[in-house]
Amino acid sequence: MAAGGPYTVLLPWYATLFRGDRFAEALQEIAPVAMRYGATSYHVYRSQEDLYKFWQWTAVPDKLSWERYWYSDEFARWRTEHSSWYQVPIVYTIAHEIAAGRIEHETLELDV
């Protein structure tokens, strides 16, 4: 990993058979914990074509913030507790954003 930051870390998860819904709930518990370790944002996505496939995106300002979260006692306990709920190995990817876009839609209020 290059020095500096910020980084976006992608964790691709794949739930084991019949555990997709429970794993989705478990990811919703652990993802926000990253904020306590210096993350600036997080997102968890679930595929609608393969309900066992998940992606966890975590934005961190530097490598140390990511490692504090990944190797924290909280995340280690979570991985141990849910180890049969996902396929291993889990290999994360770290990237720098090079382009982004967003459209904000206006909400129209209608008189009824």
What keyword list fits this structure?
globular, Alpha-Beta Plaits, 25% helix, alpha+beta, 4-stranded antiparallel β-sheet, 112 residues
What is the fold's blueprint, element by element?
Elements: E1 7-14, H1 20-30, E2 41-46, E3 53-60, H2 63-70, H3 73-81, E4 93-95
Q: Identify the CATH class.
A: Alpha Beta
The gross shape turns out to be: globular
CA(first)-CA(last) distance: 56 Å
Structural class: alpha+beta
Strand content: 15-25%
Count of beta strands: 4
Q: Uncertain runs with pLDDT below 50, 5 residues or more?
A: none
Q: Can you describe this structure?
A:
The protein is of the alpha+beta class and 112 residues long. The protein has one domain (7-95): 2-Layer Sandwich (Alpha-Beta Plaits), CATH 3.30.70.100. The protein contains three helices and four strands, in the order E-H-E-E-H-H-E. The chain is globular. The N and C termini lie far apart (56 Å). The model has no long low-confidence stretch (mean pLDDT 93).
Short description:
This protein is α+β, with helices and mostly antiparallel strands and about 110 residues long. It has one domain: 2-Layer Sandwich (Alpha-Beta Plaits).
